[in-house]
Specification:
It is found in: Cell envelope. This is Extracellular solute-binding protein, family 3. It is a single chain. The chain is elongated. It contains 10 helices and 14 strands. By secondary structure, the chain is α/β, with parallel strands linked by helices. It folds into 2 domains: 40-137 and 237-277, 3-Layer(aba) Sandwich (D-Maltodextrin-Binding Protein, domain 2); 140-233, 3-Layer(aba) Sandwich (D-Maltodextrin-Binding Protein, domain 2).
Length: 278
């Protein structure tokens, strides 16, 4: 019996030593661990600070969010947000004006650091890029032709084979119209102004876009349009960045939290939207 116990104890000690050796052996050089500081050093945030420049993509045709003034300078709500971000980072701001459909490809290719251009955060887009928390919330509304649809009271009436809806290519309005208004004819245009002109001329029944823009276009064309300003979607405008950049994403969310808490975002809304918000 004593001999059996000795054999068991000897086997246990040998097994323990073997496990200890296995657990304490360092990993091969080829599988060296990557620490959090190594990850941070390779982040977009570190790259922006290191080069001293923040590159932001916008389509400068989206008043009052981003557009060009009479001097040829970029101005607007989104432009001011980009300037605040650059200021807090201690870097200069480089705004790249590009077509709407080219913004996401440019971000994915690393040609720009961020998109700040009234881009709506959606689950589909979030498969390809990362979004900050919303900095502005709106919804799709309809600019309706008084000539072609004089009695239309709700957007639901547009889901009809006799109706024509104008949308800007690649926008959430384009996606929503395709999914929820399948009976109507959807005409797509590259420019927002072309969509408005279709409604003003009576060639289209309605144009779908964000609430601020629809209010603006009706104000500019009061005799030929009506504005249905009750949003029929939820549109959170977010800052877009490349996938997988946790440090930059976290920094931007903190920036937006602080900007909301200290009143900066409210001040910018009053500056750029004014009576359009009422």
């Amino acid at each position: 019996m004593i001999r059996l116990i000795r054999i068991i104890l000897t086997s246990f000690v040998a097994l323990t030593l073997c496990c200890g050796i296995c657990l304490t052996n360092p990993a091969p050089a080829s599988a060296a661990a990557v620490g959090p500081y190594d990850i941070a050093a390779g982040s977009g945030l570190a790259a922006i600070i290191g080069r001293g420049k923040l590159v932001v993509g916008m389509e400068l045709k989206f008043w009052p969010f981003e557009y060009v003034n009479e001097k040829g300078d970029p101005v607007g709500f989104d432009v001011d947000i980009a300037r605040q971000i650059a200021k807090e980072l201690g870097v200069e701001l480089d705004i790249r004006d590009m077509e709407w459909t080219g913004l996401i490809p440019a971000l994915q290719a690393g040609k720009i650091d961020l998109i700040i251009s009234g881009i709506t955060g959606t689950l589909e887009r979030a498969k390809a890029i990362t979004f900050s928390r919303p900095y502005f919330t709106t919804g799709l509304c309809a600019l309706v032709s008084t000539k072609k649809a004089p009695d239309m009271a709700t957007v639901a009436a547009l889901d009809d084979p006799s109706r024509i809806i104008a949308v800007k290519t690649g926008t959430t309005a384009d996606l929503v119209a395709s999914k929820r208004f399948q009976k109507a004819h959807i005409n797509r245009y590259k420019e927002e102004t072309a969509c408005v002109q279709e409604v003003v001329s009576g060639r289209a029944d309605a144009f779908f876009y964000d609430q601020i823009s629809i209010a603006k276009h009706h104000k500019q064309n009061p005799d030929t349009t009506r504005a249905l300003l009750t949003p029929f979607t939820y549109e959170p405008f977010c800052i877009a960045m490349q996938k997988g950049d946790f440090d930059l994403w976290q920094w931007l969310d903190m920036f937006l939290d602080i900007s909301k808490a200290n009143g900066t975002l409210d001040e910018l809304r009053r500056k750029h939207f004014g009576e359009l918000l009422h």
